[in-house]
Amino acid sequence: MSGILVYALHDGEGNFNKNSLGAISEAAKLAGELGGEAAAVVVGKVGDDVGGELGRYGAAKVFRAADVEEGLAQPIVDVMAKLIGEHGYSYALFGGGLLGFEIGAGLTARLAGGVTMEVTEVQAREGKLVALRPVLGDSAIADVAYVGEPGIIIGRLNAFDISESGSGEAEVVDVDVELSEWSTKAKMVTRGEARGEDINIEDADILVGGGRGLGEKDNFKLAEELAEAMGGAVAATRAVVDAGWYPYAAQIGQTGKTVAPKLYLAAGISGAIQHKVGMQNSENILAINKDPNAPIFEFCDLGVVGDLHKIVPKLTEAIRAKKSG
Amino acid sequence: MKICCLVKEVPDAAVTKRIDPETKRLDRSGEKNLNPFDTHGIEAAMQIREGGEVEVDEIVAVTMGPSSAVRALHKAVALGADRSVHLSDDALEGSDVCATGLALAKLLSSESPDLVLLGQQSDDGECYTIGAVVADHLKMPSLTQVIKIDVASDALTCERQAEYGYDTVEVQMPAVISVGDAINEPRYPSLKAIMGAKKKALDTKAIGDVGLEADQVGEAGSKTQVLGMNPPPAKQGGEVIEDEDTTETVEKIIAWLDERKLIR
Ligand SMILES: Cc1cc2nc3c(=O)[nH]c(=O)nc-3n(C[C@H](O)[C@H](O)[C@H](O)COP(=O)(O)OP(=O)(O)OC[C@H]3O[C@@H](n4cnc5c(N)ncnc54)[C@H](O)[C@@H]3O)c2cc1C
After folding, report:
1. Three-class SS of residue A117?
2. What are phi and psi of B142, to 5 degrees?
């Protein structure tokens, strides 16, 4: 049976990740073309209504491993490996994200299955799936086929559109899985902690995003002064949040917030896909970056190639002057 | 405790990468360097040793790749590893993630490390997955994208950012940890260390030495097949200006903002 098994990530309270919902939608579409079914896997405490919820996106079945904790990959590898073994799913699909990469990688080892990652498109060709994957800094797209089963596909963020194509209720099947010994050797101490002060960036019309190009923590004042002059707020990339330069609450992207202000002014931000997904719907994007090859120049409306340390202070000054004059 | 650092030789970031149209593999000729992400793994090992919470007996740099990969090992040793191990065999050529993970796991098994450290991704392959593949083969717990490690005698407390914020995870050793680039600022090797690197022990192994058969690695052991390469869809960037005269640049930005009524 050419079925596809999809991992559905949630926050621990049953709110599903939108990349997972995209993956279920995609799996349902592909399974239709292959003549099989799409099934979802959830772990942790989720209610019976999960059948209706994931069924809407086209899952025919939802396997629920209630005793397995959400948030760490290896126990979920145990669950998915067992399901693939028992039910013969031909493919496992992940909507991207940290856990998707880790679970997919674990399955590759466990089941000797081929794996592709950062996949932007999946095609059914002659009854088999082919994954399209950008390589070499996205300068080429590789079409990758699988040798044997299962094939493991890890999508790039936002690669798969969410579509409520499901006909209705998915059957919820409870599964009991004995964990591998090594899967029990990592324990979550705290999950999903927000660090630093809680600042609101979602409501700002203008956001000045600061990245590693600012050079050091203290230079965030350049971004703050510009934001203040423009009547906006300051946002940040993961690189600077992880480095402790700015609070997590200001982080835009895959593992941060998603925003759509009237203006997103990116200063010293490369424009990595994980950042892009959080700000690409901004009405206007202006980027200042000294590297003409920075990916952000491929999706901004106005790109300025230059040193932000020269440009930003003058820009702040000019805006202040304009407002007061 | 023994730490193995997985390292990889990658094309220098400044060199344009290309796919060989014949073999559909990455053209790995040209300038090479140690994968910059792996230098964070070596630095993490050095900091564990210097931190003194646990006794680190040995830090071993481990790689798989063609003969040129010894340069990456020399760099790793210059950065602090005590010795290195190189799996080099013609049969390995063309290995995908599945085959590479198995080969590295077998190589690591022969060293019996308490901790395996590696960078979160390679500069060229961008697969993010090798650590977790290796860990499952070794039957060890693992965590990727770790930005802080605290060591106690037999366990690590690791932090990382995941989809819903920061996670703190306790991992028992032996373990495989892939580190993010925010974990540390790798040191520069001293001239003395660079000069001395070539004198440190370097063990070269063939697949048979680590219990691998030729059909488990290379193209034969791979479970993916590249059918073809195509150019990406054309991208449509916006207007781009070069900053030559900053006063002028700022005027242009102001005009652009004004046009969109963004200065109020
Ligand atoms: C699973 C996962 C999840 C992630 N989640 C997120 C997320 O939610 N949000 C996020 O932002 N990232 C996320 N990332 C990280 C992401 O991949 C990038 O590493 C990060 O966005 C880079 O941040 P940056 O642009 O500040 O730094 P860099 O990529 O280092 O870019 C700095 C830029 O500044 C420019 N620059 C340097 N000096 C100057 C100067 N003087 N003047 C002008 N320009 C200058 C450089 O040319 C460069 O382009 C995630 C990664 C992974 C793997």
Report:
1. strand
2. -150, 160
Q: What angle do CA A241, A243, A245 make, to 5 degrees?
A: 65
Name which of A115, A141, A183 to mutate to probe chain B: the one with the most chain B Cβ atoms within 10 A of its Cβ.
A115
Q: Considering the entire predicted model, what is its pTM?
A: 0.90
Helix (H, G, I), strand (E, B) or coil at B203: strand
Q: What are phi and psi of A119, to 5 degrees?
A: -75, 130
A298/A295 Cα distance (integer angstroms): 5
Model ipTM value: 0.91
Task: Find the helix or strand (DSSP H, E) in which A208 lies.
Answer: strand A206-210
Q: CB atoms < 10 A from the CB of B17, how many?
A: 19
**For the segment A207-241, what is each residue's pLDDT rounded down to a tens digit?**
999 999 999 999 999 999 999 999 999 999 999 99
**Domain membership flag for residue B66:** yes
Domain assignments of chain A as residue spans, ordered by start: 4-184, 206-324
Total count of domains within chain B: 1
Q: Which among B19, B166, B231 is the nearest to A193, CB-wise? A: B166
What residues contact A230, with CB distance under 8 A and at least 6 apart? A206, A208, A263, A265, A319, B262, B263
* A157 Cα: distance to centroid of ligand 1 (angstroms): 16
Query: How far, in whole angstroms, is CA B253 from its chain's centroid?
Result: 39
Please answer yes or no on whether A139 and B17 come within 8 Å at the CB atom.
yes
- C-alpha distance across the termini of chain A, in Å: 72
Does the A206-324 domain belong in CATH 3.40.50.2300?
no
